[in-house]
Amino acid sequence: MALPEPPEADPLLGNIAPSIRLKVRNRFLEALERIYNPPAPDCASEYLLGHVKGDARAKVLLQLVQAQSSGSTRIVQGAKRVREARENLDEIKGKIERLQHLPQTTKDIREQLDKLNTENQEVSRKLGLLEAEIRKLKADLHTLNEDIGRIQEELARLGPEQKRIAVAERVGRALDDLLEQLKPTTTARLEEYVTKYFRRIADKRFEGGKIHLPVGLPPEIELESGQRLALEAFSGFEKRSFGVAFSLALAEITKRRIPLIIDTPLGNADSEYRPRTLRTLAEFDLDQAIVLTHDEEVTPRLMQHIDPYIRQTFLVEYQGRERGSVIYPNQYFKG
Predict the structure, then answer these.
(1) Could you tell me the residue range of the domain that residue 282 belongs to?
(2) Parallel, antiparallel, or unpaired: how do β-strands 325-329 and 314-318 relate?
(3) In-domain check, residue 148
(4) Contact 314, 328 (CB under 8 A)
(5) Residue 293 belongs to a domain with what CATH number?
(6) What does each of the 335 residues of the chain score in pLDDT, given as a tens digit?
(7) Final residue belonging to a domain, choices 238, 256, 274
């Protein structure tokens, strides 16, 4: 209304130069800006709302003070609500992120549960077999006790010499029967121990294999695929690995604390398996293990793998037919 357009229609300011009119417009806009823009926080009251005069000015200033005092409370409450809203938003974002990963987490848990279920079924199966075996052994023991009872009754009716003969015969037959019954259990334990040591020594392709000792047949290995192969068809090192594993298994089952003598255990073995075989022999729980070797088999470099387990070394040199073999304690091959 103060600066109408077009300028020619204004009898007051229509005839002034455009540059002067622009300056007036800018000054007017600056005045409006001072009225409506909030003043500085430390501005004196006499400079506030300069366009309001008289009694109206006092009323406006009073209302302004009231609005500012009540507005600060609302601002604090509003800031609190904004902070709570942000915290809720962050919590919701975290829940959304967890929900996004929930399918993979659920899949992993399901796979673990399936694996545990499979292991539980296998343990239950083995437990069932052991329980059945225990029941059979208890029945066999009961039968054996009955036989002993009958023997004792018969002995009461016999003379001293006849008693001794009858006891020997009956005990012999009872032991023969018991040995036949114990053969499957003993064979199963021996297969378990041989498998354990064979896996430590042999090639990685036999990691999941199992050794079988069928009666009257050569030893076999059952692969993870279920295929059975005769060990005599394998390389010389695999046969030697079986021999070492069998010796360690017998020592563990019998608990006999006698020296174990292994002759050239690394024959035909690749460099990858030599340290593994030596460590298996060295770490075996036995009072003494004697390894017979030559300079091309257990080299000084290989000896570093079992050096903490070596109690003593001997160097044997053949020095002709007249002197024979000479033994040097605490020595080993040179170079």
Answers:
(1) 258-335
(2) antiparallel
(3) no
(4) yes
(5) 3.40.50.300
(6) 777 778 777 887 778 888 888 888 888 888 877 766 666 667 776 666 666 777 877 787 777 777 766 666 676 777 788 888 888 888 888 888 777 777 777 788 888 888 888 888 888 888 888 888 888 888 888 887 787 777 777 766 666 666 566 666 665 665 566 455 545 667 788 888 888 888 887 777 777 888 888 878 888 888 888 888 887 877 777 787 888 888 888 888 777 767 778 787 776 667 777 888 888 888 877 778 888 888 777 877 888 888 888 888 898 888 888 889 888 898 887 64
(7) 256
Q: How far apart are CA 261 and CA 211, in angstroms?
A: 23
What is the full DSSP assignment across 242-278? HHHHHHHHHHHHH-----EEEESTTTT--TTTHHHHH
Q: How many domains does the chain have?
A: 2
Positive or negative torsion for Cα 58, 63, 64, 66: positive
pTM: 0.42
Tell whether 305 is covered by a domain. yes
Q: Tell which of 256, 276, 304 closes a domain.
A: 256
Provide the 3-class DSSP secondary structure of residue 174: helix
Q: Which two tokens mark 315?
A: 């160097």
Q: Residues 256, 264: contact at Cβ < 8 Å?
A: no
Using a 10 angstrom Cβ sphere, with 0-12 exposed, 13-18 middle and 19 or more buried, the burial of residue 98 is: exposed
Structure tokens at 182: 């114990």
Tokens for 225? 């695929």
